[in-house]
């Protein structure tokens, strides 16, 4: 059985559905970050690794020009333990 | 689509959106223009604190206390949960010298109506377990301090304003301000021309660039803040946690003058909060590096060193991302709010530095009072008049 498309999760980490993204686009969202602010999609533990491509595709399908092909990511792009980062940054500095 | 309005607001941060909402509520027809998306500036890369406790005991504190009152009913007024929660805030005091100065500051805060008080290290630990007992001698505590979700706040203002008839356009940057006989007549964006006799510059750290369009020299400078965000964890941070050192340093700059450490140079503070979803956000810096919002390893190292020294348990958390944004810094750290003398119709509402989230409701109220009534009951409003600086 095909579930109602609007109920499908696009962002599993933050539990954001196709319907949520459609509503954000209807409210004026035009970029991945715009959608992030309205729905929190992309703000979960994986930081958009899973959902970003699908959101970009939905924006393209809604005929919205993406000004960037690849949304800029800040580090960390992988989960990083506070203690480990302390160790890495110490090596860099000392 | 109507291209004329009573007021045009430039900027889609919390300040621009709050102003748009309060003006719409007073029946003004408003056009709000944001060159990127809502929260693309400082309002989308900040902490969540509504903290009168961190304010200097002057007009600034009075303004913050007024905002605190407005916040109490804001969720219901805007018809949306903005995740406002009164948690109370701690300013951690690390040595006797800081304690002596904080005694004086707390007295002054009390006389202006903030019920802050000094508490022992033991009581501090009871309020916020997990603090390193050896790192503190006590704290000042204020109960009315709260936090809020800035994303929800900004969109709640903007969406409510739109429901009241405001026209909000994102991805539309103002490129030119139209003058007629020296007075403001409208603005030109990358798409359209809009007309209104009043234009409000609420462009945050970019306010000087907008000011240049009418020949002004607005003394606001971008001041970067970097932050670290962890994955969601069970309740761990119960209070808003800050270092007293920051407010102490404002009163006694000589105390920080001889401190040439990387920490002092980058203005590192703990600024610890936990969101409703459970993400812990900590650390923030104060750096003058132009409009560069990137993260640097050097700063993150100092943020983490400072934070884990104070709350060792942070070491066990996993970071999901880092963040950087530019606060609109004003030379006397007070925002500039009012009509600019010499350019009729040009209104400035920017320079909220590290307090824009806290001060957004009162700023919207103050601006709408000044524009609709020509006067206001907001205390100490005259202290924020932009004409205190030479703007030409
Ligand atoms: C790390 C950090 C932590 C912070 N923590 C707190 C806190 O806990 N509590 C608190 O109260 N405050 C905090 N602040 C401060 C707060 O974020 C700011 O004071 C507030 O967001 C300023 O809001 P604003 O609307 O003036 O500016 P912004 O949010 O920067 O909005 C200005 C907007 O104007 C737009 N713009 C610029 N030029 C144009 C143009 N030509 N045309 C159209 N639009 C234009 C920009 O794109 C931007 O969206 C923090 C800031 C930082 C950086
Ligand atoms: S799936 Fe969207 S942040 Fe992980």
How would you characterize the overall build of this protein?
The complex is a heterodimer of chains A (94) and B (392). With 94 residues, chain A is mostly helical. Chain A has a single domain (5-93), classed as Arc Repressor Mutant, subunit A (Orthogonal Bundle), CATH 1.10.10. Chain A has 4 helices and 3 strands; from the N terminus they run E-E-H-H-H-E-H. Chain A has a two-stranded antiparallel sheet with strand order 1-2. In chain A, a hairpin with a 4-residue loop joins strand 1 (9-11) and strand 2 (16-17). Chain B is of the alpha/beta class and 392 residues long. Chain B folds into 2 domains: 2-44 and 151-219 and 332-388, FAD/NAD(P)-binding domain, CATH 3.50.50; 89-143 and 221-329, D-Amino Acid Oxidase, subunit A, domain 2 (D-Amino Acid Oxidase, Chain A, domain 2). Helix content of chain B is 31%, strand content 24%. Chain B has helices spanning 14-25, 59-72, 74-78, 96-111, 121-127, 150-163, 207-212, 244-251, 253-257, 262-265, 297-310, 356-372, and strands spanning 7-10, 30-33, 49-50, 85-86, 89-93, 116-120, 138-142, 146-147, 167-169, 174-180, 183-189, 193-195, 198-201, 221-232, 240-243, 273-274, 279-282, 318-329, 336-339, 346-350. In chain B, strands 9-2-1-13-20-19 form a 6-stranded mixed β-sheet. Chain B has a 4-stranded mixed β-sheet with strand order 6-7-5-15. In chain B, strands 16-17-14-18 form a 4-stranded antiparallel β-sheet, covered by helices on one side. The longest helix of chain B has 17 residues, at 356-372. Chains A and B meet through helix 2, strand 3 and helix 4 of A and helix 6, strand 14, helix 11 and strand 18 of B. Strand 3 (80-81) of chain A pairs antiparallel with strand 18 (318-329) of chain B, so a sheet runs across the interface.
